[in-house]
Amino acid sequence: MSSDTAIREAERLAQIRADLAFLGYRQESSAFTPVLKAGRPIDQGRNLAAEARDLARSGGIDLCRRRDLSEVVEDLFEVDVAIVRLPDGFDGLAYPGVAATPHQCRSAPLVVRNS
């Protein structure tokens, strides 16, 4: 399996979401608007993680007590999380969910996690 396989799977799942939106089952966009600061990617990641943790806490969610982090991510950030088998070397990937053709509805972002 290659990176193309992982991307095709994300595109397939995003297409399903777009089809559901077209049929009237649209997923709302997230209100989470992280503050992206310049700097090293690792520092940006730490800042984003801290903002996400603070959002969870403000919503009364104790991340240490939740067994299913995928469910927390879906609820907090209004994204779809799919757990599928990915090629070696992939822990997961994020897919923006932008419509591929003009007649498609913009779908929610998608996170694909390796099983």
Summarize the SSE layout with pairings.
Layout: H1 3-22, H2 41-58, H3 69-77, E1 80-84, E2 92-95, E3 110-114
Parallel strand pairs: 1-3
Antiparallel strand pairs: 2-3
Write a structural description.
This protein has 115 residues and is α+β, with helices and mostly antiparallel strands. It is 41% helix and 12% strand. The protein contains three helices and three strands; from the N terminus they run αααβββ. The chain has helices spanning 3-22, 41-58, 69-77, and strands at residues 80-84, 92-95, 110-114. The protein has a three-stranded mixed β-sheet with strand order 1-3-2, sandwiched between helices. The radius of gyration is 15 Å and the shape is globular. The two termini are 15 Å apart. Mean pLDDT is 75; it is low at 98-107.
The largest beta-sheet arranges its strands as: 1-3-2
Question: Low-confidence segments, ≥5 residues, pLDDT <50?
Answer: 98-107
**Count of DSSP helices?**
3
Please state the average pLDDT score.
Answer: 75
Give the strand content: 5-15%
How far is the N terminus from the C terminus?
Answer: 15 Å
How many whole angstroms does the radius of gyration measure? 15 Å
Q: Briefly note the structural class of the backbone.
A: alpha+beta
Query: Based on CA inertia axes, which overall geometry fits?
Result: globular
- State the total count of DSSP E strands: 3
Supply database-style keywords.
alpha+beta, 115 residues, 41% helix, single chain, 3 helices
Structure in a nutshell:
41% of the residues lie in helices and 12% in strands. The protein has helices at residues 3-22, 41-58, 69-77; strands at residues 80-84, 92-95, 110-114.
